[in-house]
Amino acid sequence: MDGVIEANALTRRYGAVTAVDRLSFTVRPGRVTGFLGPNGAGKSTTLRMILGLTAPTSGTVTVDGRPFRDRPRGLRHVGALLDAHEVHGGRSARAHLSALAHGNGLPVRRVEEVLGTVGLAAAAGRRIGGFSLGMKQRLGIAAALLGDPPVLLFDEPLNGLDPEGVRWVRGLFRSLAAEGRAVLVSSHLMGEMEHTADDLLVVGRGRVVAAEPLSVFAARGGGTTVVVRTPDPPALADALRAEPGAALRESGDGGWTVTGVSAERVGDLAHAHGVRLHALSARTASLEQVFLELTAEQVEFGVPQPPGPGPGHPVAPLPVSGREESTR
Amino acid sequence: MNAPASVRHLAPPAGPTRFRHLIRSEWTKLWSLRSTPYALGVGGLVVTGICVNAARSNADRLDHGPLPPPGAGADPAREAAPFAFDALGTAFVDPAWQLLMVLAACLGAAALSGEYATGLARTTFAAVPDRRSVVAAKAFVVTAVLLVFGACVTLTSFGATQALLRDHGGLSLSDPGAARAVVASALLAPVCGLAGLAAGALVRHAAGAAVTVIGVLLLVPALFQGDTYRWVRETGHLLPLDAWVTLVRDPALPVPEKYPATATEAWAVLCAWAAAGLAVAVAAVRHRDV
């Protein structure tokens, strides 16, 4: 089946800054697509270009084969929540949704229906200005659902939601996709997408870093990390020195992590060199790690790393300083 | 791939696209803000109140014998001229109607700047990608509401002031110049509203848009007064405040300036400002990113 959203060399420049750089991707129906990237990677600009709010400098993006701006009315084609704060605080939730429904010729009963769906029925008559961020997110989701569209876009929809709300939103995305809709959800946190997305579209500095099913992306983690505890780290370093590709790092909690070697091989080498081990375990790299490594070079607003051994630093004469970055 | 064959639809299928849907949407937006009825209600009362108060105090003074207007004695040219009381002018006291212009312009500006400043514009234009129709619907609602508002204020002000001045030359609608003044005053609010809409589209910031349109409508005219240079005065005639002043003048009284505009020119100026306001708003909203 063809994609519902097709971007072709989509580019947007703001003066000297290229926010989105020749982005090409496809979002398929019946799937939740996680749109991931660090802050400033161009996610929001891309979503605005899909909706025709921002004009591309070059390239095209279509929804159902047509540029979205060519449609006279949008709600039945694409539902979108870009920023929950983008509402007029002086109106009630009901008035806000009614204005949107009227403009698209939708029956007013849809307003009460979507308010019920997102759990805001009791607050329908209250002014939006008094809403918490979580309530505004729910209102934005309600607005996106109004026209019962086959395509849904959500920009950072989990911000401000309580754990119950997060669980509800994830369930909602899954069920929307199960109904055959295309659901594109942006986030800068891999953890938010891990249990929700079928496909991933990872961007960094406006470029596609990865576009593949979540399972394929997870396999990129490939190499496992071995966690070791030993009373004699220098001896362990000696034991690993001859092993090609092996790297030893202190994990900060008194333990050590070894990358580039299997847990079995670490055990064997320790045994051969007579190094005592108190703990030895293998750990699969998390998606978050894969994501961080992939986007590390593309971080727009990164803090410079302090000098010291980075990932993959070869076994050095001990003591090895430096910290393991994430061993969750 | 586990995509089901089709989406389960909750909403009824799309009907025809109608402009009246957008008018209803904009109507809902305008009246769902509490400030709208308050501003129009209070504004209408203040404008009418100032004019009625002026009529009442004028009637009071004229009851005690016709006095020359203040300052007339200092001007030897006017001293000889017979004193003519301007009853029509009492219904259209300048500061009161400038207040009405401010109110109408701010209402028009807020219709667009309110959307841009809050970011609501993105929600609006994602729901209705046809931006030109959205602006047209806004202009329609703003114009209609301000036309009714302007007509109510004008008729109340005219009726009340002229009734109070019935013994001192108060006019009725059938008198020369009266109907013209009433129609021009009723149109003043929607013209300013459309100018405000253009300011809202260009400036996109609530306070900035209001200041811009007030500056253009009320402060700029002050730069083009005086009879010294003909071109200065004629440039001034291109502004809506000036056009309105021309149209509410009692044609029976002498014209108090050297280079007056004709009524036809003044009507054309009001129409041009309305049309230009709408055109600028549509063009700015269409061509700029949201």
Automatic annotation (TrEMBL), chain A:
Xref: PROSITE patterns: ABC_TRANSPORTER_1, ABC_TRANSPORTER_2
Compositional bias segments (type: Pro residues): 304-317
Signal peptide bounds: none
Pfam families: ABC_tran
Every ABC transporter domain range: 5-230
Record keywords: ATP-binding, Nucleotide-binding, Transport
Any one GO MF annotation of this record: ATP binding
Region annotated Disordered, chain positions: 302-328
Keyword Magnesium: no
Gene3D superfamilies in the record: P-loop containing nucleotide triphosphate hydrolases
Family the entry assigns: Belongs to the ABC transporter superfamily.
Protein name: Multidrug ABC transporter ATP-binding protein
Native organism: Streptomyces hydrogenans
UniProtKB/TrEMBL annotation, chain B:
Taxonomy, superkingdom: Bacteria
Keyword Lyase: no
Signal sequence range: none
Ranges that cross the membrane: 38-55, 96-114, 135-158, 178-199, 206-224, 266-285
Keyword terms, alphabetized: Membrane, Transmembrane, Transmembrane helix
Phosphoprotein listed as a keyword: no
Name of this protein: ABC transporter permease
Protein's organism: Streptomyces hydrogenans
